[in-house]
């Protein structure tokens, strides 16, 4: 069974057929790309898959379950995350903290536990920091784990931080419309 299956997906805005009869499947553990010229419907396709738009027709399955009609926040909790091309890096945080932000849906959000900094919460934070560091290494930013986000980072470094925060958001399908802009060398090859 594929991680993500799209079958005969279409959406029409009035008389405009923005996406028409698109079908594909995505297996877990492989990076895929959607390419095409401006206006081809790439972003609309991502909006359909991530619940921003409801398709006119067709079917979308995540781990075998039909997901069209589910809200974007419900899909994000299931591992279907969408980010945007305009990365919002928090310059007053470290690079690794920017990556860790992506895990907010997986964390225990109990205010009382957070105020007491209970041992279980400390262990979870340490595990998350290790996971984020591993993702930064994967996208080619391992040398910046201890750096502040505003410490001389270039745009392609910011794109890498964005890729890391999507990775730490949890397992499942992860979507980012737009080019692998700024990802040089090996990072571009890994990005698709």
Distance between the first and last residues' Cα? 22 Å
**SS elements, strand count:** 6
Taken in chain order, the helices and strands follow as EEHEEHEHHHHEH
| Shape, principal axes of CA atoms | elongated
Low-confidence stretches: 164-171, 173-192
The biggest beta sheet, please? 4 strands, antiparallel
> Total number of helical segments?
7
Helicity, as a percent range: 25-40%
Quote the average pLDDT: 78
Look at the helices and sheets and give the structural class.
Answer: alpha+beta
Radius of gyration in whole Å, from Cα? 18 Å
Strand order of the largest sheet: 2-1-3-4
Strand content: 15-25%
List the keywords.
34% helix; alpha+beta; two-stranded parallel ribbon; 192 residues; disordered C terminus; single chain
Fold blueprint:
Layout: E1 4-13, E2 16-26, H1 42-49, E3 57-62, E4 65-66, H2 72-77, E5 81-82, H3 95-100, H4 111-116, H5 119-138, H6 155-168, E6 174-175, H7 186-191
Parallel strand pairs: 5-6
Antiparallel strand pairs: 1-2, 1-3, 3-4
Helix pairs in contact: 5-6
Q: How would you characterize this protein structure?
A:
The chain has helices at 42-49, 72-77, 95-100, 111-116, 119-138, 155-168, 186-191; strands at 4-13, 16-26, 57-62, 65-66, 81-82, 174-175. The protein is an alpha+beta fold and 192 residues long. The strands form two sheets. The protein has a four-stranded antiparallel β-sheet with strand order 2-1-3-4, with helices on one face. A two-stranded parallel ribbon has the order 5-6. A hairpin with a 2-residue loop joins strand 3 and strand 4. Helix 5 (119-138) crosses helix 6. The chain is elongated. It starts with a strand and ends with a helix. Mean pLDDT is 78; it is low at 164-171 and 173-192.
């Amino acid at each position: 069974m594929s991680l993500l299956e799209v079958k005969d997906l279409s959406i029409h805005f009035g008389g405009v057929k923005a996406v028409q009869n698109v079908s594909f499947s995505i297996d877990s553990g492989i990076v895929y790309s959607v390419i095409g010229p401006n206006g081809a419907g790439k972003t609309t396709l991502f909006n359909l898959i991530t619940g921003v738009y409801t398709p006119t027709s067709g079917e979308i399955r995540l781990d075998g379950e039909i997901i069209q009609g589910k809200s974007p926040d419900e899909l994000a909790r299931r591992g279907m995350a969408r980010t945007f091309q305009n990365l919002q890096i928090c310059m007053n945080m470290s690079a690794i903290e920017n990556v860790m932000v992506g895990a907010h849906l997986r964390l225990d959000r109990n205010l009382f536990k957070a105020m007491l900094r209970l041992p279980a919460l400390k262990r979870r934070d340490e595990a998350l920091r290790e996971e984020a560091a591993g993702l930064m290494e994967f996208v080619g930013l391992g040398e910046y784990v201890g750096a502040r986000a505003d410490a001389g980072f270039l745009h392609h470094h910011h794109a890498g931080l964005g890729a890391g925060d999507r990775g730490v958001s949890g397992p499942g399908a992860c979507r980012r419309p737009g080019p692998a802009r700024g990802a040089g060398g090996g990072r571009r090859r890994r990005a698709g």
